C-alpha cells in the first residue's frame, strides 16, 4: 500500500488573503469560550469515558501498531534500523503509536525529526499537539513549541532540505478550521460529558451517605436570621454540580417550640434506572461516532451475538472506511521520511485480518467431507498438527465417487 509522492520542491509565490487571529508568534489553537483551548480539552476527554478512551486506542493501534510490511527493500535491514530511533531507546512503532494516539485524541499530531552529523535524519520523537502551534505564513519557521522551558522553533520537514530539527504534521481533515484539525468524533462531546456527570451524580449518592433529596419543613415558628442565612448560603454553594448530589443539610435551631421535618421529594432510587439507560445510550453513540465495532470496544449486548459472518463484515467496513484512509495518510509521509533516514525502502502498515477462523473451519470441513483434501491437510490449513490417532472413517467415504477422488489424489501426489 503505497501513497502518492509528496512534491516539496514547488515554490508558491502567492498566499491566501484569509487572515486569522494570532497570539504572539503563533496561530492560536481552536478556542471555545466555555472550554478554552479545544486541543487541551479534547486531550483531557479520554479520562472522562472508558468507551471513548478505548475507541481512541483501538483506532490508533489498528492504524499503525499491527505491524509493518516492507514492500520494497531489505526487510531485515529496515526492521533493524527502526528498532531504535531515539536516545530513549524507543522503536519506530512505539513513537508512531504515540503520534497516532494524539491524532485520534486531538486530530493533530507531530513527529519530530532530528538530523545527525551525516546530514540524515537519525532520531525521531513524539511531539505533543497541545504544546505545538502553527505559525503565520512568512514566519522564519513553520511551528512553535511551547513547553515548560523557552519556546522552540521548528521547521516543516522537507526531505530535500533537511534541517537540524523539523516536524512532520498529521491532521484530520475539517472544514471548520484552516490551520488545525478537529476530531471527527467531536459531535459526541456532550454525550461524553453527560455520561461523566451522570456517573458523578450517582457516585454522590454513596459518597454522601446515600441520603435522597429532601424538603425542609418548619413547623411552629420560623428560622431565626442566622439560621436562615446559613440555609441560603448552603443551598447556593452546595446544591449545584454533580459532586454535590445527595448532600445532607444540618440545621441548628435557636427558637423554642420550632420543629423541622424532612420530606422526600423523589421516589426511592428514582435516579438509578434512567441513569443506567442514559449511559447505555451514550455508550452506543460514542462508539458510533468513532466508527468502532462494539466488540472491539469490549461491548457485547444480549441479542447481538452474531456469527462469524457478522463479525467479518463489521471488521471489513471498519478497515476500509475508518482505518485504511488513516494508514494511507501516515504511509505517504513516512515513506518520504525513510528516504531522509537513508533507508531505501517502502513500507505499509499491516491491515486488520477480517477473515473468520470459524468460516475457514467450515470451508475445510466441507473439502474434507467431499474427499478433495485429507484430514491432515484440513487440520494444517486451520492451524492444527496431524491427527495423533486415525479417526473413524466417515460414512460419506463409502460413496464410490469419493473413493475415486481419493485415489486420484493419491495418483497426483505420486507424480
Descriptive report:
It is a single chain. The protein has 415 residues and is α+β, with helices and mostly antiparallel strands. 40% of the residues lie in helices and 15% in strands. It has eleven helices and 14 strands. The strands form five sheets. A six-stranded mixed beta sheet has the order 7-6-11-10-9-8. Strands 1-2 form a two-stranded antiparallel sheet. The longest helix is centred in the last third of the chain and has 33 residues. The protein starts with 21 loop residues before the first strand and ends with a helix.
Residue runs with pLDDT of under 50 for 5 or more positions: 7-11
| Major sheet characteristics | 6 strands, mixed
The sequence of SSEs as H and E is EEEEHHEHHEEEEEEHEHEHHEHHH
Question: In which range does the helix fraction lie?
Answer: 25-40%
End-to-end separation? 39 Å
Arrangement of strands in the largest sheet: 7-6-11-10-9-8
On the 0-100 scale, what is the average pLDDT? 81
Name the overall outline. flat
Strand content bin: 5-15%
Q: Could you tell me the number of beta strands?
A: 14
Per DSSP, the total helix count is 11
Structure classification: alpha+beta
Radius of gyration: 31 Å
Amino acid at each position: 500500500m503505497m501513497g502518492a509522492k509528496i512534491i516539496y520542491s514547488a515554490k508558491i509565490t502567492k498566499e491566501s488573503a484569509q487572515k486569522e487571529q494570532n497570539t504572539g508568534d503563533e496561530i492560536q489553537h481552536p478556542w471555545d469560550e466555555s472550554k478554552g483551548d479545544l486541543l487541551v480539552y479534547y486531550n483531557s476527554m479520554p479520562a472522562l469515558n472508558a468507551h471513548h478512551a478505548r475507541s481512541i486506542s483501538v483506532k490508533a493501534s489498528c492504524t499503525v501498531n499491527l505491524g509493518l510490511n516492507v514492500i520494497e527493500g531489505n526487510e531485515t535491514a529496515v526492521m533493524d534500523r527502526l528498532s531504535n530511533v531515539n536516545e530513549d531507546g524507543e522503536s519506530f512503532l512505539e513513537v508512531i503509536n504515540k503520534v497516532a494516539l494524539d491524532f485520534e485524541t486531538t486530530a493533530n499530531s507531530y513527529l519530530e525529526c532530528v538530523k545527525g552529523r551525516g546530514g540524515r535524519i537519525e532520531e525521531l520523537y513524539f511531539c505533543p499537539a497541545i504544546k505545538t502551534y502553527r505559525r503565520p505564513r512568512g514566519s522564519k519557521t513553520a511551528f512553535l513549541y511551547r513547553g515548560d522551558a523557552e519556546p522552540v522553533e521548528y521547521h516543516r520537514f522537507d526531505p530535500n532540505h533537511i534541517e537540524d530539527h523539523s516536524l512532520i504534521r498529521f491532521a484530520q481533515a475539517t472544514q471548520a478550521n484552516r490551520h488545525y484539525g478537529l476530531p471527527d468524533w467531536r459531535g459526541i462531546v456532550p454525550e461524553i460529558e453527560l455520561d461523566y456527570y451522570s456517573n458523578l451524580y450517582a457516585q454522590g449518592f454513596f459518597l454522601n451517605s446515600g441520603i435522597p433529596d429532601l424538603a425542609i419543613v418548619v413547623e411552629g415558628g420560623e428560622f431565626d436570621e442566622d439560621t436562615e442565612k446559613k440555609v441560603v448560603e448552603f443551598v447556593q454553594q452546595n446544591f449545584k454540580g454533580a459532586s454535590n448530589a445527595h448532600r445532607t443539610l444540618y440545621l441548628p435551631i435557636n427558637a423554642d417550640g420550632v420543629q423541622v421535618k424532612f420530606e422526600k421529594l423523589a421516589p426511592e432510587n428514582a435516579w438509578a434506572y434512567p441513569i443506567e439507560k442514559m449511559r447505555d445510550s451514550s455508550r452506543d453513540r460514542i462508539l458510533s461516532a468513532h466508527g468502532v465495532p462494539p466488540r472491539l470496544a469490549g461491548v457485547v449486548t444480549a441479542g447481538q451475538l452474531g456469527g462469524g459472518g457478522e463479525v467479518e463484515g463489521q471488521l471489513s467496513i471498519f478497515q476500509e472506511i475508518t482505518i485504511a484512509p488513516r494508514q494511507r495518510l501516515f504511509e505517504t509521509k513516512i515513506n518520504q521520511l525513510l528516504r531522509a533516514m537513508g533507508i531505501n525502502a517502502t513500507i505499509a502498515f499491516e491491515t486488520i485480518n477480517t477473515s473468520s477462523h470459524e468460516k475457514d473451519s467450515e470451508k475445510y470441513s466441507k473439502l474434507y467431507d467431499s474427499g478433495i483434501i485429507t484430514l491432515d491437510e484440513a487440520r494444517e490449513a486451520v492451524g492444527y498438527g496431524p491427527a495423533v490417532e486415525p479417526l473413524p472413517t466417515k460414512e460419506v467415504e463409502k460413496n464410490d465417487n469419493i473413493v475415486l477422488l481419493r485415489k486420484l489424489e493419491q495418483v497426483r501426489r505420486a507424480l
